[in-house]
Structure formats: C-alpha cells, structure tokens
C-alpha cells in the first residue's frame, strides 16, 4: 500500500513539473506576490534611518565576527553615485558613497546601496554597504568593488 501512495505522489510531481509556466493570477497577486511592480520611491543617500542601519550593522559585524570594538561614529561627504544603473526592469537601487568616520580616529571610504523591497521579508527597503579597508573577508572584493554600480 505504501508503494501505491509513493507512485501516485511521483506521478503527480511529474505532471506538475510538465505543466506550462504561467503568470500569477489576480488572486495570487493579492497575497504578497506583486511581481516586478516597484514604486521606485527610494530614500535619499542622507536618509537618517539608512545611515543608522549601516552604523548598527557595522558594529554588529565587527563585534560578532571580528571581536573588534570598531564603530562608525559619523559620515562625511555623503553623495549619490547612481540610481538604477541597469534599467527600469531591475530592482530599484540608489548607490551612494562617502566617508565613514571610525571611533579609532580613522576615516574610510564607504559605498552603500538602498534597494526597494530588499528589507526583512521583502516589505521594506534594504541597505548593503562596504567600508573600504574594513571588508575583512573581502566579501565585496578589492576596494569594495561589488558594492558599487
């Protein structure tokens, strides 16, 4: 009897995999499946909440992974580098740059992006950042290249 149920489940799985791909229905779209319908309403580079998120996340990373007391204590020369450099159908992003002032009296170039629907479970804007010289595992490549447009 167990074999019959397994065979039935396998048949259903094969049938579903062969079904033609289709767009989400109006009912599906009403349940958090909006598709690529972006408002393109992004905060400015100087937006206080975005900078606060960078400060908080930088401290958490330094403390948790590098056992470091380094903190960002301020920003200088914040400016926009580009907005949506790859076209209208991509996730809207604002690329920014500036200088991060660190609590050890050093200053480092910082690159960050603010992206629509990239926050917690995709309902808020998200921030990705890289501090040149403090990207210890080279996650963004040399000189934070991957954090730039």
* Major beta sheet, strand line-up: 1-2-3-4
Mean pLDDT: 81
Low-pLDDT runs of 5+ residues are none
**Gross geometry:** globular
Instruction: Please state the structural category.
Output: alpha+beta
Strand content bin: 15-25%
Structure in words:
The protein has a domain at 48-147. It is 27% helix and 25% strand. β2 and β3 form a beta hairpin. With 149 residues, it is α+β, with helices and mostly antiparallel strands. Strands 1-2-3-4 form a four-stranded antiparallel beta sheet, covered by helices on one side.
Kindly list the characteristics that best describe this protein:
4-stranded antiparallel sheet, alpha+beta, 4 strands, about 150 residues
Q: What's the short version?
A:
The protein is α+β, with helices and mostly antiparallel strands and 149 residues long. It has helices at residues 2-18, 26-29, 48-66, and strands at residues 72-83, 93-102, 107-115, 126-131. The chain has a 4-stranded antiparallel β-sheet with strand order 1-2-3-4, with helices on one face.
Question: Helices, strands, pairings?
Answer:
Layout: H1 2-18, H2 26-29, H3 48-66, E1 72-83, E2 93-102, E3 107-115, E4 126-131
Antiparallel strand pairs: 1-2, 2-3, 3-4
């Amino acid at each position: 009897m167990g074999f019959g149920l397994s065979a039935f489940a396998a048949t259903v799985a094969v049938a579903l995999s062969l079904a033609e791909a289709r767009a989400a229905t109006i009912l599906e779209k009403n349940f958090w499946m909006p598709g690529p319908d972006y408002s393109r309403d992004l905060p400015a580079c100087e937006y206080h909440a975005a900078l606060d998120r960078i400060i908080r996340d930088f401290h958490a990373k330094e403390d948790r992974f590098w056992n470091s007391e380094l903190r960002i204590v301020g920003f200088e020369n914040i400016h926009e580098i580009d907005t949506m450099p790859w076209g209208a159908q991509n996730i809207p992003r604002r690329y920014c740059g500036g200088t991060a002032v660190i609590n050890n009296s050093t200053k480092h170039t910082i690159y960050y992006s603010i992206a629509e629907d990239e926050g917690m479970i995709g309902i808020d804007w998200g921030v990705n950042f890289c501090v040149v010289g403090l990207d210890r595992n080279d996650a963004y490549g040399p000189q934070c290249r991957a954090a730039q447009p």
